[in-house]
Amino acid sequence: MCPSRVADGCKRGWIVPIGGAEDKQGDMRVLQRFFELCGGKGAEIAVIPTASRLNDTGDRYEQLFAEMGARKVSVLDFDTRRDARERNRVQQIEQASGIFITGGNQLRLSTILGGTPVAQAIRAANAKGVTVGGTSAGAGILSAHMIAGGDSDNPTPRADSVRFAPGLGLSNRVVIDQHFRQRDRLGRLLAALAYNPFSIGLGVDEDTGAFISPDNVVEVEGSGAVTVVDADDLQFSSMAQVDGHAPVCMLGMQVHVLTAGATYDLETRRASAGTLAPVKE
Amino acid sequence: MCPSRVADGCKRGWIVPIGGAEDKQGDMRVLQRFFELCGGKGAEIAVIPTASRLNDTGDRYEQLFAEMGARKVSVLDFDTRRDARERNRVQQIEQASGIFITGGNQLRLSTILGGTPVAQAIRAANAKGVTVGGTSAGAGILSAHMIAGGDSDNPTPRADSVRFAPGLGLSNRVVIDQHFRQRDRLGRLLAALAYNPFSIGLGVDEDTGAFISPDNVVEVEGSGAVTVVDADDLQFSSMAQVDGHAPVCMLGMQVHVLTAGATYDLETRRASAGTLAPVKE
Fold first, then answer.
1. I need a surface site. Which of A41, A94, B28, B108 has the fewest CB within 10 A?
2. B4, B97, B110, B136: which is the annotated catalytic residue?
3. Residue B1 domain-assigned (yes or no)
4. Where are the beta strands (DSSP E) in A103-215?
5. Per the structure, how many domains does chain A have?
């Protein structure tokens, strides 16, 4: 799916993939930043815990955002595709100033929400300026091309190391992988780009958010890093020649490891040290 | 330590880091290629099993190289620094047409062989054209700056994720990491380069060899890949600003994943698809 068209004179909202396991007890840098982008004290946040099989996942985020001072938090648990067509729930998405999708199994998100009025409402909301974030599975689903599964623990790309599925489609500029450091997913992210180097790979560590601004600049917040893989200048990929578990030859990728303060512009494909750059004296 | 000076009109020998767990029962592509570079049927190979605590490590390689048709295989087990000064054993290094260093604990290699006549003889042999290879710990020790330890399972570089020690010093152009895919060592290889981007990182997968030619072109053989990390154009590294387990921001690295057939020139820093490039019709 593709992003909804942004109306003339409007700006798209922020897109916030979080790598999972974000801090919920300390200073909550990642969730706090998301909360501010939803409007802070005036925020009305819709939480979608559909990916999770745990009963209290939605309640946990409801409590967190309420404690931060949100005006309203609605937990919208879609368990079936029929749920995702219910007018009342869709309206709550339409009225939210921020939408948060929890972790769990991303195939639950794509199979239950894909192609429903809820998915359309999320895209439309983002196109008119609403912040949409997600953690873990909720991060993976945000882009047009979602990594649905594949190898973990593997920095070398292999022909069969990644499986795609269509995602919510808020952006088609990025392919997102999460728990990046913790589950060693460089190989499958590289394999994802080997298929089509158009997208930019974002490997998001746990307790870390890749905050994608309305102008498509990635800002990083949290205790880990966002690994940006840019295959735009790829000299060569053997993806079309290999199959099975054979390693894929990929020459000429640019890699940037961004920590909090650094930025990456998805339009110009330029990384910047941002606030990390030494101040000139 | 630095490489021995290559005499005028001479060529340095091949340097062959292998990522560990190379095939010893099938077609043995990696060991067979090493054997050919030692002279094939006429080869006289010195095997150094010092890194290993297993009694039969040396015997195993002796048998393999003998079955391939080597004229002579000598297993030289140095257990103490005194062993590494014994004239008779040093002479066997001097007479070999190929030297192979087995896996095990690379700190045994650096602490027992470092600074001894054996280490000097290995460097001198390579400078006069003798092929020197090693697997796993035996690969790590080959370069001037050896990764002595650090994090595995971590694609994000962290301030404390790598510890260096001086190696045998056959090349100061590369920093070698082994079991690369299998133990997820991108983070520590990146951290190694963050300290000083002069070196080129070679992450060698298991059952894979990075064959560094006398002209410093890396050729790949085996079932895995060699991940080349080139930090020469590094825009920014926060290594000097962070400490402890904090992630390091590194912007502007080039990464190439080379499979068998592809090459990388350590002098020009250019990757090539080599024999993998589609033939023009």
1. A41
2. B136
3. no
4. 131-135, 145-150, 162-166, 174-178, 200-204, 208-212
5. 1
ipTM of the complex: 0.82
Closest CA to B165 of B102, B199, B114, B117: B114
* Alpha helix ranges (H) inside chain B: 29-37, 57-68, 87-95, 106-113, 117-127, 137-140, 180-183, 186-195
Selection from B250, B227, B228, B236 nearest residue B159 by Cα: B250
Radius of gyration of chain B (CA): 18
Nearest chain A residue to B261 by CA distance is: A249
B6, part of any domain: no
Read off the tokens for A42.
């005036």
Pair of tokens at residue A144 = 């047009």
Question: Residue B113 phi/psi, 5° resolution?
Answer: -95, -25
Q: How many residues in chain B?
A: 281
* The token pair that represents A54 in the structure block: 């745990």
Q: Beta strands of A19-83 (E only): which ranges?
A: 44-48, 72-75
Kindly report the pTM of this predicted structure.
Answer: 0.88
| Among A156, A134, A109, residue whose Cα is nearest residue A22 | A134
- Which residues of A does the annotation mark as catalytic? 136, 179, 206
Query: Mutating which of B178, B255, B275 best tests the A interface, going by the most A Cβ atoms within 10 A?
Result: B255
Distance from CA of B130 to the nearest CA of A (A): 30
| Å between B240 CA and nearest CA of chain A | 10
Tokens of A208: 């870390």
Is A278 domain-assigned? no
CA-to-CA distance for A74 and A92, rounded, in angstroms? 8
Q: Which residues of A touch B238 (CB under 8 A)?
A: 259, 273, 276
Best of B184, B248, B254 to disrupt the A interface (most A CBs within 10 Å) is B184
- Cβ of B257 and A235 within 8 Å? no
Quick check: helix, strand or coil at residue B252? Answer: strand
- Tokens 């402890």 identify what position? B244
Helix axes B106-113, B117-127, angle to 10 degrees: 100
Specify the 3-state DSSP secondary structure of A143.
Answer: strand
**Are B252 and A241 within 8 A, CB to CB?**
no
Q: What is the CATH number of the domain that holds B186?
A: 3.40.50.880
Bridge partners (DSSP) of residue B75 are B47
Catalytic annotation on B179?
A: yes
Q: Which residue of B has its CA nearest to A233?
A: B254
Pair of tokens at residue B117: 């006549």
Q: pLDDT 10s per residue in chain B (281 long)? A: 578 888 888 899 999 999 998 999 999 999 999 999 999 999 999 999 999 988 899 999 999 999 999 999 999 989 999 999 999 999 999 999 999 999 998 889 999 999 999 999 999 999 999 999 999 999 999 999 888 877 665 667 888 878 888 899 999 899 998 876 656 567 788 888 888 888 899 999 999 999 999 999 999 999 999 999 999 889 999 988 888 888 899 999 999 999 999 999 999 999 999 989 876 55
CB-CB contact of B115 with B147 (8 Å): no
User: Is residue A274 in a domain?
Assistant: no
Give the C-alpha distances (Å, rounded to integers) separating A73 from A22, A35, A163, B31: 19, 11, 34, 63
